[in-house]
């Protein structure tokens, strides 16, 4: 999971490098602002991955095949509903960002590119949210190698797309957004292929999915608040940097890649613990969960020092 997670910010370095080599900082600052809106919209719904992992791991631990199918179905239904909400409110989402940044003349070009990026990338919302559910399910049942393969394939496709669309075809910011859309679609297809067997078993649970969704939403309320607070901290620097012009936003986008590298590496430990502890709780093996948590805590404390030294 650590390997899978750190490939995500490494790709961010590539995106930043490709856009950063264009002849104006407006391109990079515009991409940073546009991706910020998309990232907030998607990451606020990161509870789709976390809750699916938690519930799937517990069902796996108690060997409840029906429960596993129900968890995946409810996650997919909720992801689609939330994606519809995002697409319906997309213009308001971008306008909300404009209320928080400096819209003076010095930011005019950056905001134009931000809109360009946002208008393309936001349409991948259904695929992105379903990817969270499918990855959460695979992590929950311990199939982390499949997650690693899916993430690596996605990143490779994105990397190739960046190179083809930006330096070769000259699509600039639109090229980066298109590369991300194609990459996430490829990841979606791969994740679907890993879950074909359980998807075939979903039909009998369609009628019973509604009752479970109500409880699922109630459980995710706290996770949503956690994600909102985290996103506020991460987004504040980018939004505030707009007061100092596109150069400040562009520099902040570069520095943020180092922060994300450390954060995603630590998330790998969290993902693994969610799966292990959930399975142990489902199997009613409390002693094992008492052992896993301190080990994860120790690894979480040591990993930042190693990663910071590496950076």
Write a structural description.
The chain is mainly α. The chain has one domain (2-310). Helix content is 85%, strand content 0%. It contains 13 helices and no strands. It has helices at 2-20, 25-43, 47-61, 65-88, 90-98, 108-121, 125-140, 144-168, 172-194, 196-199, 209-241, 246-282, 286-310. Helix 7 runs parallel beside helix 9, helix 11 (209-241) runs antiparallel to helix 12 and helix 12 (246-282) packs antiparallel against helix 13. The chain is globular. The two termini are 19 Å apart.
Primary descriptors:
311 residues; mainly alpha; 0% strand; globular; membrane
The low-pLDDT segments are: none
DSSP, total strands: 0
Radius of gyration of CA atoms, rounded to a whole number: 20 Å
Structural class by SSE content: mainly alpha
The figure for the number of domains is 1
Transmembrane segments: 27-50, 71-100, 120-140, 147-169, 175-193, 205-224, 244-266
Organism: Psychrosphaera algicola
Subcellular location: Membrane
InterPro entries: DinF-like (IPR044644), MATE_fam (IPR002528)
